[in-house]
Amino acid sequence: MRTFNLTVIAPPKRLSVSQWADEYRYLSPEASAEPGKWNTSRAEYQRGMMDAFSDPSIHTVVIMSSAQIGKTEMLNNIVGFFIDQDPSPVLLLQPTLDMGEAWSKDRLAPMLRDTLVLKGKVGEARTRDSGNTLLHKQFQGGHITIAGANSPASLASRPIRVVLCDEVDRYPIGGAGSEGDSVALAFKRTTTFWNRKMMITSTPTIKGVSRVEMAYEGSDMRRYHVPCPECHEEQHLKWANVTWEKDDPSSARYTCDGCGSLWSDAKRWGAIKKGQWIAQSATKGVAGFHLNEIYSPWVSLCDMVTNFLEAKKSKETLKTFVNTSLGETWEEEGIQLDDSELMTRREEYTDVPSGALVLVAGVDVQDDRLELEVKGFGNGEESWGIDYKIIYGDPSKQNVWDDLDTALLQQYQNEDGYTMRIAASCIDTGGHFADAVYKFVKNKEARRVYAVKGSSTPGAPLVNRGTRSNKGNVKLFSVGTDTAKELIFARLKIDVFGSGYMHFSKIYDEEFFKQLTAERITTKFIRGFPARVWTKTRPRNEALDLNVYALAALAILNPNWSALKANLERKVMVKEEQKEMEMPQSIRQKPRKTIPSRQRGGFASAWK
């Protein structure tokens, strides 16, 4: 009698996302600090978050979290699972197309290469008709499309079963232009699938306008509870329970809610391995997860306290800590500045103050003039207003740009006796004279004269990496104007000399301060969602724009402050030695030790 091996025709075993990852996933060396086989127990809280995608009773997953909890790799596991175990049409929506392309190249491609079960399931991009491009990849039974929330064309009407919306708090205000809200458009594409899966994830931003916070509050609001190693009481981990001795981050411990015992990092990580997700309300198809950095196995309490002590020195860095380390929204105070009060802070200085280690410039282009401000920056980005010029004339005429070139080449006297030049400049292209700006900056990149264009995308970086995909084929930087304005207004509220303080000399008049404070943040509903929008309170705001462009120039320059300070100290010493050598022999001081010439130069020498 013939026997049959039934295992040969048995269906593949059903795995959850975490089980699939533990069995098959390999972390790539260029995409992970811990390359090799995936192990969910390394960060046990990830299991429940990933397995929500395998739960047929859940159609939407919301993750509001800090950074450093492994969210990107969980996202990769979910994508890998659907390619291998449950082939489906998948859409991954990133804030911008550029970010989508970066994920495809830096995350997806290495995973497809190094996770053996995925190898060969997606056609090679170099193969004709492979269905594999940077933003669209086909596999048997499905495909994955990578799109940007800023691109309506990438949200076409192709049916999608799995939609993964990443970093939604950084999506453009108003969604995909006239097409509507990006998330709503993406979710609408799942309508025909009874087994659809949708995800919203992000580090949160501002309370009241954070999209991920609103989504989390509409979910079952799960928190990860861990048992105390001493009394076994289950609790979710809170920043308020982290304690340390004054100015000693290494003494940081976590305090139990129940017995008050102090947990070391080892005890904390051990407790996390035994934790569980507990919902605060009924699920109703939407599972929400909130997690902060205290849970991360890659961050010690000492690291967190060190970061907090540094962050609390200014409002903008504390806000970043709350968003990215605690995974919580920042409750913004109303931003109101009194221009007349700022004017009373003007100081008497004509030369560049010694604290200013580098000069940068911002240039605003108007229909009948160019406006230029030169600012000095020092340690902690303390700043000094140095010069303000208005160059009247038609920006379509060459003579106006010749005058600007002369202004940008001007040398300024430092109060210690040496000269300084403008190290970097940013010129706005957002008006009617973009072509004229491109022409002006074309051959001036070596002088760090750059073209910039404003972007009001929420959470956009102060400047991006720059691109040459423009009419002038010049390096064009996108400037996060909302980010810059919030930073400027926060610094204008600092009233103690030091990090972030903004100094103004007597050259600035009443009109300048009115323009500097000519905008305020208002909350508007755009396509049904609340958004924080900067709106003008006066017709003219050039002074504020110039400060935005100066900050962008500083960010592009990214100076090495310690190297700059050392270089300028050498220049002062050399100046003093020269003065002393010019004195009569009888009154000279004891010779100072000179600085060998081989030590001079380097990063800062080009700005002499």
Can you characterise this structure?
There is one protein chain. With 608 residues, this protein is α/β, with parallel strands linked by helices. It folds into 2 domains: 25-229 and 279-297, P-loop containing nucleotide triphosphate hydrolases (Rossmann fold); 340-562, Nucleotidyltransferase, domain 5 (2-Layer Sandwich), CATH 3.30.420. Helices cover 28% and strands 23% of the residues. The protein contains 16 helices and 25 strands. Strands 3, 4, 5, 6, 7, 8, 9, 10, 14 and 15 form a 10-stranded mixed β-sheet that branches. Helix 8 packs antiparallel against helix 9 (315-324). The longest helix is centred in the last third of the chain and has 22 residues, at 561-582.
β-strand number: 25
Largest sheet: 10 strands, mixed
* Amino-to-carboxy terminus distance: 95 Å
Task: State the CATH architecture of the largest domain.
Answer: 3-Layer(aba) Sandwich
Sequence stretches where pLDDT stays below 50 over 5 or more residues: 590-608
Mean pLDDT: 86
Q: Compute the gyration radius: what is it?
A: 28 Å
Global morphology: globular
